[in-house]
Amino acid sequence: MLVNGKEMRSLWYEDECLKLIDQRKLPAKLEIFEAKSAEDVAYAIKEMVVRGAPAIGCAAAYGVAMAKDKEKAAKMLKETRPTAYDLFYAIDYVLEKARQGEDAIKVAGEYTEGIVKKCRKIGEHGKKLIGKNARILTHCNAGALACVDYGTALAPIRMAKDMQPFVWVDETRPRLQGLLTAWELEREGIEHAVIADNAAGYFMRNGEVDLVIVGADRIAKSYDVANKIGTYEKAVIAKENGIPFYVAAPLSTFDKRIENGSQIKIEERCGEEVTKVYPWKPHRVRNPAFDVTPAKYITGIITEEGIIELQKK
Fold first, then answer.
1. pLDDT at 233 over 90
2. Sign of the CA dihedral running 45, 71, 227, 310
3. Contact yes or no for 83/226 (Cβ under 8 A)
4. What is residue 4's predicted lDDT score, i.e. its pLDDT?
5. On the chain, which terminus has fewer CB atoms closer than 10 Å, C or N?
6. What is the reported pLDDT for 312?
7. Residues 40, 217, 224, 255: which is the catalytic one?
8. What three-state secondary structure class fits 274?
9. Which DSSP symbol is given to 283?
10. Among 47, 107, 96, which residue's Cα sits nearest to residue 74?
């Protein structure tokens, strides 16, 4: 992604340290978090220094690689966040290579480069869905910050920049990840507007949305998709209004061990993420971080190997 006119990734390994853009500080300021151990990486994942399934997976890959006791580190890292499948996929991948005697740091680097290449391919396949001056709705952040580079949902938009797309950016409560999307789009020079989550239906019904593209944290064999809370309702409203709804994700997000979305464990996070904007504290708060969108609401899934068509446009 472009930062101050220069290309930058959301994480990289340098001087025996994993460096990550601290997403908790964006968009107000750009700061780098340094993880010098598996414990630091676990903290970064759990406390959302790093976010987005592919980026979490890459960070975890380095976390395992940096540890002396890789089995112990793998167990600790798997306990950080339960929903995103890339985390588990990446840990197992590096762990298996390390058991075979390969250089784990090198393996983590190759894994990360592979994710970047997959995201670029997602962009190449997805850009053909974007027509001239297309108006696209996104939810949460599925850009370079979430994927090391390019992004998943944002990759097709970046690739289709010459088509002059316009992006409706859901603010994405409660952590306002939409502001990270806006931060990326502003630096890429792509026209966009941030909207309240509850305004998405308004713009869809008024004919101001041509296409919805979101990322994913885990995809079941049935193609049910877990993604940031609020994705399900966007998919339902899109179908009601005849708007194509696409999910963009690398194949490492597909969990072939589970049949459908009901088997996906949904992370529930601290209620303070919801209440910290209030001058008082409600008696009870629920804060599920993800929801599941059934495959029947999804037009297709954009992967590095092409588009899996699920419903007629």
1. yes
2. positive
3. yes
4. 81
5. C
6. 60
7. 217
8. helix
9. S
10. 96
For range 106-123, the mean pLDDT: 98
Alpha-carbon gap, residue 275 to 273, rounded angstroms: 6
Give 294-312 pLDDT, tens digit per residue. 999 999 999 999 999 997 6
Q: How confident is the model at residue 193 (pLDDT cuts 50, 70, 90)?
A: very high
**In the prediction, which pLDDT does 194 show?**
98
| Nearest Cα to Cα of residue 302 among 114, 122, 52, 135 | 122
All domains in the chain, ordered by first residue: 2-119 (1.20.120.420), 128-309 (3.40.50.10470)
Six token digits for residue 4:
């101050």
Residues whose CB falls within 8 Å of the CB of residue 120, separated by 6 or more in sequence, listed in order: 149, 150, 155
Give yes or no: 255 in active site.
Answer: no
Q: What is the 3-state secondary structure (H, E, C) of 30-91?
A: CCEEEECCHHHHHHHHHCCCCCCHHHHHHHHHHHHHHCCCHHHHHHHHHCCCCCCHHHHHHH
> Side-chain half-sphere of 152: how many Cα atoms within 13 Å?
32
Note the Cα 294 to chain centre separation in Å. 18
Query: DSSP secondary structure string, 194-207?
Result: EE-GGGHHHHHHTT
pTM of the entire predicted model: 0.95
- What size, in residues, is the chain? 313
Residue 75 phi/psi, 5-degree rounding, is: -65, -45
Termini Cα distance of the chain: 31
Structure confidence by residue, pLDDT tens digits, 64-78: 999 999 999 999 999
